[in-house]
Design a protein that fits this description.
This protein is an alpha/beta fold. It has helices at 18-22, 49-64, 94-110, 128-139, 153-156, 158-164, 177-186, 241-262, 267-273; strands spanning 31-35, 70-71, 115-120, 147-152, 172-174, 233-234. It has a single domain (7-264), classed as Creatininase (Rossmann fold, 3-Layer(aba) Sandwich), CATH 3.40.50. Helix 2 packs across helix 7 (177-186), helix 3 crosses helix 4 and helix 7 crosses helix 8 (241-262).
């Protein structure tokens, strides 16, 4: 799956000149802003894992929607205070992170963007970003035709995650079967499978299952070293390159499906959907 790797493209913001951006018809061209992180991913994956995966997905999606979306550079700094007890992690506090995300959105709105999709690749960003979206909605209330959306790629790709994973409940959490498999495709030279070992509580607690597909009825804030000595939550030893290709292709397809629908959104259609 060579298109999962970085390449030059006409609709990557980093490659464009300002007159080219000015010519984009933003009424039908969604802007994708990938959100990553720099944080520990166990002893077998690099600190940039979240950023590398979400960047690869965004670029693969752009290749499938050629000239129909604009992809911004990935925001590599995430909200990762729960990983700070592991050396190398970089984190922005909630208010700072929210302001960064809001600034990115305000910048694109200033340039004419009407549909902005924050494509998330780090679980820790799921707490501050929805609050930032609420503030943006108030601040940009005059823009009646503006839509700002947010999703982690594993939300949209839940079907793929279910179909491809071999681990049980608790096996896909952090530096896990899925992320390790994806990195075996994106940057295999950065993966040390000899250090990939199962860790974390798994499904030991009835009300506290840590898994990308778990729906916990009770919230609890934990530091990561309270959950895992190695920084791993899941079963990375089950990772393979073949699974990585299936994960990435499936996730990209689900994101493409959303963006094709998102491009058609109008205030009238959104209001009418609930009538």
């Amino acid at each position: 799956m060579g298109d999962a790797c970085p390449y030059n493209s006409g609709m990557l913001l980093e490659n464009l000149k300002w007159p080219e951006v000015k010519r984009i018809d933003f009424t039908s061209t969604p802007v994708v802003i990938p959100l990553g992180s720099v944080e520990q991913h166990g002893p077998h994956l690099p600190l940039t894992t979240d950023t590398e995966i979400v960047t690869a997905l965004a670029r693969q999606v752009e290749s499938r929607l050629s000239e129909r979306i604009l992809v911004a550079p990935t925001m590599w700094l995430g909200h990762s205070p729960h990983h700070m007890n592991y050396p190398g992690t970089l984190s922005a506090e909630p208010r700072i992170y929210m302001d960064i995300v809001k600034s990115l959105v305000h910048s694109m709105v200033r340039h004419g963007a009407k549909k902005i999709f924050l494509l998330n690749g780090h679980g820790g960003n799921e707490a501050p970003v929805p609050v930032a979206l609420r503030e943006l909605k108030s601040e940009l209330s005059a823009h009646k035709d503006l839509f700002v959306t947010f999703a982690s790629y594993w939300w949209l790709g839940a079907k793929t995650l279910t179909e491809v994973r071999k681990s049980g409940v608790g096996g896909v959490g952090h530096a896990c079967e899925m992320e390790t498999s994806a990195m075996l495709v994106i940057a295999p030279g950065k993966v040390d499978m000899s250090q990939a070992r199962k860790s974390g509580p798994g499904a030991a607690l009835r009300y506290r299952v840590i898994d990308m597909q778990a729906k916990n009825p009770v919230a609890l804030v934990s530091e990561f070293d309270e959950l895992s000595d190695s920084g791993v939550l899941g079963e990375p030893e089950l990772a393979t390159e073949g699974k990585g290709r299936l994960f990435l292709d499936g996730f990209a397809a689900s994101i493409v499906e959303f963006l094709e629908d998102f491009a058609t959104w109008t205030p009238e259609a959104v209001k009418g959907a609930g009538s």
